[in-house]
Design brief:
The complex is a heterodimer of chains A (261) and B (318).
Chain A: E1 2-13, E2 22-34, E3 39-43, H1 50-57, E4 65-70, E5 73-74, H2 84-89, E6 90-93, H3 107-118, H4 123-136, H5 153-165, E7 171-175, H6 183-200, E8 203-208, H7 211-217, E9 220-225, E10 228-234, H8 235-240, H9 245-252
Parallel strand pairs in A: 3-8, 3-9, 6-7, 7-8
Antiparallel strand pairs in A: 1-2, 1-4, 4-5, 9-10
Helix pairs in contact in A: 4-5, 5-6
Chain B: E1 2-13, E2 16-29, E3 34-38, H1 45-52, E4 61-70, E5 73-74, H2 80-86, E6 91-94, H3 98-101, H4 108-119, H5 124-137, H6 143-146, H7 156-169, E7 174-178, H8 186-203, E8 206-211, H9 214-220, E9 223-228, E10 231-237, H10 238-243, H11 248-255, H12 293-297, E11 301-305, E12 308-311
Parallel strand pairs in B: 3-8, 3-9, 6-7, 7-8
Antiparallel strand pairs in B: 1-2, 1-4, 4-5, 9-10, 10-12, 11-12
Helix pairs in contact in B: 4-5, 4-7, 5-7, 7-8
Classes of the chains: A alpha/beta (261), B alpha/beta (318).
Chain lengths: 261, 318
């Protein structure tokens, strides 16, 4: 479905003004592929490059090197106008539910925007579709006339999810979608992701720093460390046949495996 | 050592109390123990901590009832001069974000020195030596060099270590840490938690850790208070409470985190609804699976044992 080959990305950073810049290699040759109806989880610490990878896979940032294939066509060097199909079929949910919704638009406007751009539904159908979508994500259709500030973090994340799946995408990239939510709400959102995936059968890349959540939701897991994927494989195998020391340290850091300090 | 007795904090609007954010909270903190205050955002846990230092983040928030007895004196009745002597020297608060808690235009050395300047009569040379030994205690590399760095040159974990160094600088008997590891990576978290354990076991200080993460609680705490909607809904010794939780909220919280032994792709047990102000007597009424007509009218503090009590009418039948 979506595949990337040898992706590299550097950032130039100046630590002090007027001093020469130096390069940070954020991604050092990433190969990752995701098939249809599959959930791939990516775990790693902050700074390991997982969000950069998400941005590159969404073509929101350009890789320095490497190629991205979508349905076996290369899309890395396509023009903006040639990417409309990609933009429609690959959707994203971001970490911060507060900054990812426009505070000035009522929910209905936020949710109809993708439909206006990519579908030819009539106005009445659009409103009906928005209502249906809100019900699917566990909100009520009357909520569509409210503004983002009237919702809590968990509810906003539901709206973000509704916006992402309203066009029936083939791939959904979720970058830390639950980490800014309260524990009791996290479970609700994880359940929602699982339920919607079962219903719509989209492929999903689920990024998180919490190994337990990734294990729960994914078919395959990629462990990222300092810009590389150090381990990739079936969910259970990662736990039973751990090869990389970093993955081992992640597993031992889990509270279940911890003895009191 | 510290007793918080029926503390009530209200949000005022136009001079009238509008909402009770902390409702009748009682805490009892013994010397040399680590206590965890667990709850979601908005449950009033940070506000309770700020009240202990009589530091209200906003003018609209006022303590309307209660006593905070620290070593026998009521903190709420002290004047500003007396309070200044308690803050920092007797009770130290490590605020929520290590990234913003330090002053970006002062070096680490200047910020630690400030504590000594206001609370002791040390010469600047002694201050410097003390600061270096403090940074050594919290296991920062090259302490002498670190004193000259600015906060932005340190990583999140290092900044948190600097704050912990500041917290033990004046040898206070109580340290309050508000979400000390939330902004940090998992691998750095355990180092910070070990420091807190060391502060408690080797230096004999009490620590209140405010958190929403039961993983942290499991690692360091000895006694746990679970807060919901401004009330302590359950309290108890760590093992007792974690192995035998009674309140539906505590049970839900513990279960809703996927564990390493859970079956993948199955729906997680979850608490329904959102944290909203309850219209009824019990703050958890709307989200609770067990709630019925009795819960609307009353709830009871049920003491299950010396070390475990819960705020729920259903607890008796359980």
């Amino acid at each position: 479905m979506l595949r990337c080959q040898n992706i590299k990305k550097c950032f130039e950073i100046s630590k002090q003004p007027f001093k020469p810049k130096f390069k940070i290699e954020a991604l050092k040759g990433i190969n990752l592929s995701i098939s249809e109806n599959e959930i791939v989880g990516i775990v790693g610490e902050s700074g390991s490059g997982k969000s950069t990878l998400a941005k590159i896979l969404l073509l929101l940032a350009k890789p320095d090197e490497g190629k991205i294939f979508y349905k076996e066509t290369e899309i890395t060097n396509k023009k903006y106008s040639e990417l409309t199909f990609f933009r429609k079929e690959v959707q994203a949910v971001f970490q911060d539910p507060y900054s990812s919704l426009n505070p000035r638009l009522p929910i209905i406007d936020t949710l109809t925007e993708p439909l206006k751009l990519y579908s030819k539904l009539s106005k009445r159908d659009v409103i009906q579709k928005v209502g249906e979508m809100l019900e699917k994500v566990g909100l009520s259709p009357e909520d569509m006339y409210k503004y983002p500030h009237e919702f809590s973090g968990g509810q906003r994340q539901r709206i973000n999810i509704a916006r992402a799946i309203i066009l029936n995408p083939t791939v959904l990239i979720a970058d830390e979608p639950v980490s800014s939510l309260d524990v009791s709400i996290q479970a609700q959102v994880i359940n929602l992701f699982l339920e919607l995936q079962r219903l719509y059968k989209f492929s999903m890349i689920f990024i998180s720093h919490d190994l337990r959540i990734v294990r729960h939701i994914s078919d395959k897991i990629a462990v990222m460390y300092q810009g590389k994927i150090v381990e990739f494989g079936e969910c259970e195998k990662i736990f039973t046949h751990t090869t990389h020391p970093y993955t081992k340290s992640l597993i031992t850091a889990l509270p279940e495996n911890q003895v009191d300090v | 050592m510290l007793d918080v007795i029926s503390l009530k904090v209200a949000l005022f609007e136009k001079g009238f109390p509008k909402k009770l954010l902390v409702n009748d909270v009682n805490l009892n903190i013994a010397p040399a123990t680590i206590i965890a205050l667990v709850g979601e955002s908005g449950s009033g846990k940070s506000l309770t901590a700020y009240s202990i230092l009589n530091l209200m983040p906003s003018d609209n928030l006022k303590i309307i009832n209660g006593k905070i007895l620290f070593k026998g004196q009521n903190i709420l009745q002290l004047n500003n001069d007396q309070l200044r002597k308690v803050r920092g020297a007797e009770i130290f608060m490590i605020p929520q974000e290590p990234l913003t808690a330090l002053n970006p235009v002062l070096t680490v050395g200047e910020q630690i020195g400030e504590l000594f300047k206001y609370h002791t009569n040390l010469s600047s040379k002694e201050m410097n030596e003390r600061s270096i030994s403090l940074l050594e205690k919290v296991k920062l590399n090259n302490p002498a060099e670190r004193l000259k760095s600015y906060p932005h040159q340190l990583s999140g974990g290092e900044r948190q270590r600097v704050l912990i160094a500041m917290s033990i600088a004046l040898n206070p008997s109580l340290i309050i840490a508000d979400e000390p590891t939330t902004a940090l990576d998992v691998s750095i978290q355990s180092g910070i938690l070990q420091l807190f354990s060391k502060i408690q076991s080797e230096m004999g200080k009490s620590v209140i850790i405010i958190t929403h993460d039961f993983g942290i609680v499991r690692k360091v705490a000895q006694y746990i208070y679970v807060m919901y909607g401004g009330k302590i809904v359950e309290e108890g010794e760590k093992d007792e409470l974690l192995n035998n939780p009674i309140h539906p909220y505590t049970i839900g919280l513990l279960k809703s985190v996927p564990s390493i032994n859970s079956i993948p792709k199955t729906p997680l047990p979850m608490i329904k609804g959102y944290a909203e102000k309850s219209k009824h007597f019990c703050p958890f009424f709307e989200r609770c699976d067990l709630s019925d007509a009795i819960c609307k009218e009353e709830f009871q503090q049920v003491r299950l044992s010396e070390k475990h009590s819960v705020l729920c009418t259903k607890a008796i039948k359980c």
